[in-house]
Amino acid sequence: MKQEIMTITANRQLAPRIFELTLKGELVDWMDKPGQFLHIRVPQADLLLRRPISINQINHTEKTCTIIYRTEGQGTLHFAKLKAGDTLDVMGPLGNGFDLSEVKENDTVYIIGGGIGIPPLYELSKQLIQKGAKPIHFLGFATKEVSYYVKEFTELAPTYLSTDDGSLGIKGNVGTLLDEHLMSVSQLPQAVFACGNNGMLKKVESLFVDKIDNVQLSLESRMACGMGACYACVCHVKDDLTQEKSVKVCDDGPIFKAGTVIF
Ligand code: FAD
Ligand code: FES
Questions:
Q1: pLDDT by residue for the chain (263 residues), tens digit each?
Q2: Which end of the chain has the lower number of beta carbons within 10 A, N or C?
Q3: Which numeric CATH code is attached to 2-94?
Q4: Domain spans of the chain, in order of start
């Protein structure tokens, strides 16, 4: 993990409340695993805690990386005001990232994402394709209006979409999308990678945990230090009847094998 004052080269709006921000700096040399995140200081004196945001794309040649964020509170609203040439104090890359070591050439891999869980899945899909694997994307948004990166994902691999109101893809959530898809296929994928809200992750876990060995879930948690020191982000380990064993989402995760933690 490193820390650097990185320079913003672009900060463009993709959809209502959704922005794509590009950062340039030496820190990019350290980024390589999809699913890792950056811990970014908000340049506003009264906001002490850094904000965790997933890495969306890494470009080692240009020494740039992108993040995609949705404005929620003061921190992300401040990010939205920044322009090319401004700087951000960035720590990272943090977290374990998705483990691609067991994925083999020609393996079918389901990539499943919902809402603001989708950004890290883009770099993941690109890296899986580089390995010769065959990803299939399942992406869910609230509405067409707040969807983003649909063209980008579609250009990489087959992409199935759902929206709550049916304005893009099927009407329903990612769970509905998966249920429908699974009825139409005779073979399950070799691996499943997912990032989204807990409800979506629970559905993914219930569908695949007993059937496929390589199911990885990226959990979201409120964080403070982001590097394993403060215990703000712990969750319990499954099948630990004493409830004494815990893991830290920031440091041991954010990616966990399905069936191993309670969330
Ligand atoms: P406020 O609500 O004002 O934040 C107040 C405090 O709560 C801050 O310390 C903030 O960090 C924390 N907080 C609020 N919501 C969350 C949350 N959902 N998760 C963790 N901490 C939170 N959001 C994106 O838009 N894009 C991403 O790619 C992305 N990746 C993430 C990766 C990880 C590993 C985690 C843990 C969270 C990620 N988030 C992402 C959520 C993002 O961190 C929060 O939306 C953001 O911190 C909100 O800050 P705020 O100041 O705008 O909101
Ligand atoms: Fe401090 Fe995870 S945020 S231990």
A1: 799 999 999 999 999 999 999 999 999 999 999 999 999 999 999 999 999 999 999 999 999 999 999 999 999 999 999 999 999 999 999 999 999 999 999 999 999 999 999 999 999 999 999 999 999 999 999 999 999 999 999 999 999 999 999 999 999 999 999 999 999 999 999 999 999 999 999 999 999 999 999 999 999 899 999 999 999 999 999 887 777 789 999 999 999 999 999 99
A2: N
A3: 2.40.30.10
A4: 2-94, 98-218, 220-263
Give the ipTM of the model, two decimals please: 0.96
As a dihedral over the C-alpha atoms of residue 70, residue 136, residue 235, residue 43, rounded to 10 degrees, the angle is -20
The reply, when asked if residue 34 is annotated as ligand binding, is no
Q: For a substitution probing ligand 1, which of 18, 36, 72, 122 has the most ligand atoms within 8 Å of its CB?
A: 72
**CB 237 within 8 Å of CB 245:** yes
For residue 151, with 0-12 CB atoms within 10 Å meaning exposed, 13-18 middle and 19 or more buried, which class applies? exposed
Quick check: 131 and 157 in contact, CB under 8 A?
A: no
Closest protein CA for atom 2 of ligand 1: 73
Q: Architecture of domain 98-218 in CATH?
A: 3-Layer(aba) Sandwich (3.40)
5 annotated as ligand-binding: no
40 known member of a binding site: no
Task: Report d(CA 128, CA 3) in Å as an integer.
Answer: 28
CATH topology of domain 220-263: Dihydroorotate dehydrogenase B (pyrk subunit); domain 3 (2.10.240)
